[in-house]
Every structure is written in C-alpha cells, then in structure tokens.
Design brief:
It contains twelve helices and eight strands. It is of the alpha/beta class and about 260 residues long.
C-alpha cells in the first residue's frame, strides 16, 4: 500500500513543486512505483514534467468533480517509471464547487483509496495556500514534507502551517505526521543561509532532512524543458541532493515498517 506524502508550504517560491517533481522522479528511478498528484491549479508540476495539454481524458478536476476514475487521467511520464495525474486552471473552480459537498475535505482521500494499492509512493504537490485543496491533500496523506527556503523569512508562516497540520490531525486525519522539513535554495557562500539552516535545525531537531537542496541554475532551468533534473542534468549538485533525499525517504519508511 502506498505511502502518501503531501508537499506543503503556503508560501510560494520555496521550491515545493521542484521538490515534488524531483523527489518523485528519484523515487521512481530507485525502482519504486510512484504517482505524482498535481493538486495546484497552476499546473506547474504537470508542465514541469512536459505533460501540460496532454491530458485528453481530463485531469484532477474531472476526478474530483465528475468522479472520473483516477486510472482514466493517469499519464506515464516519458523515460521514467513515474506517473502523474495532471491539473490545470479548471482545478481552481473545484475548491468553490466542493464548498457545499458533504465531507468536502475527504474528496481526494476517497479518490486515492481507489488506486492506493497500485503504488509504493503517492506524492501530492499542494497549492501555495492553506485552502480547501491543500486541506484535501493533507487529509489524504500519511505525512507532510515542508520545503523551507534558506532565506530571511524562512520561519515566517511555518508556525501557521504546523498549526494547520495539527488541526487536520486532531479533527480530520489522526494518522497525519510531519515527514520532514526540507531546506531548499541553499547557497553555502551566504552567511544568512547558513544561519537559517542552523536555526531551522535548532527549532525542529528531529524533523529536518540531512539532504539540503542547493540553489542552482540547472535546477531552475529543467522545468522549462519539461524534465526533472534527473533527465536534464543528472550530475548537477541539485540532482545529487534530490537523489540523497529519495534515499533518506526510502530509508525512513523501511525503518518505520
């Protein structure tokens, strides 16, 4: 049965989608059966893997609103063992359409129950907000990975996010855990970045991944070519960081079984 992991941070531009694309790609490269759910109406995970516009049978919006079976909308990502349920801007309307639905927070949970046994990992790329779509992602998940940018306002908003995770755990999904905090966009020459790394590790001693994702041009360029860093430049420092992250995630799950 798949381990379901949401990548969440209500702040945009923290490397969340980059992490969702590359972690799922490296988990697939490690021989795991992986499905990526693009829960963000901006559809950046879909376009970043070269999938945008290829969803002839619909996308996540149609799964959630029209109750199309998830197998209908799953697309194989070229040259990898990774699969994705894409999204596009239609999904923005889903939050409004779901507002009056009974058990509205459980719609994604119910959807993923239909295919959970087909995968080792299901990763969810959440929108940069704490709205109904993100709550659906959290309720559907076993754990959360929080990407945190190693910059000045890194810890700002983190308290609010952790509070939301606690509320979801108390009221909607008692099994939800924090899988880890992932430090991103790190520049080791920058004194402030080093300070932020230290600060985050001090605040959350048991939750921070050893892997730290550096800021690299190639990592930023890869989505423009519709590729993960694994398929774009596997020798890049960013590629190495995401490979290590995938190894860490697998190791943590093996030890908790």
């Amino acid at each position: 049965m798949a381990k379901i992991i949401s990548l969440v941070n209500q702040k945009g531009g923290v490397g969340k989608t980059t992490s969702a694309i590359n972690l799922s790609s490296y988990l697939a490269a490690a021989g795991k059966k992986v499905l990526l759910i693009d829960l963000d109406p901006q559809g950046n995970a879909s376009s970043g893997l070269g999938i945008a516009g290829k969803n002839k049978n619909g996308n996540l919006y149609h799964n959630l609103i029209d109750k199309i079976h998830p197998r209908e909308t799953i697309i194989q990502v070229n040259g990898s063992g990774l699969e994705i349920i894409p999204s596009d801007q239609d999904l923005a309307g889903a939050a409004i359409e779901l507002a009056d639905v009974e058990n509205r927070e459980y719609q994604l949970y119910e959807l993923l129950r239909q295919i959970r046994n087909d995968y080792d990992y299901i990763l969810i790329d959440s929108p940069p907000s704490l709205g109904l779509l993100t709550i659906n992602g959290l309720v559907a998940s076993d754990e959360v990975i929080v990407p945190v940018q190693t910059e000045y306002f890194a810890l700002e908003g983190l308290g609010q996010l952790l509070n939301t995770i606690d509320l979801v755990k108390e009221n909607l999904q008692p099994k939800l855990e924090i899988g880890g905090i992932l430090l991103t966009m790190y520049d080791r020459r920058n004194r402030l970045a080093n300070q932020v790394v230290k600060e985050v590790r001090n605040y959350f001693p048991d939750h921070v991944f050893d892997s730290v994702v550096p800021r690299t041009v190639r990592l930023a360029e890869a989505p423009g070519f519709g590729k993960s860093i694994l398929n774009f430049d596997a020798f890049n420092k960013g590629a190495k960081a995401y490979r290590h992250l995938a190894e860490e995630v697998i190791k943590r799950h093996q030890s908790s079984q």
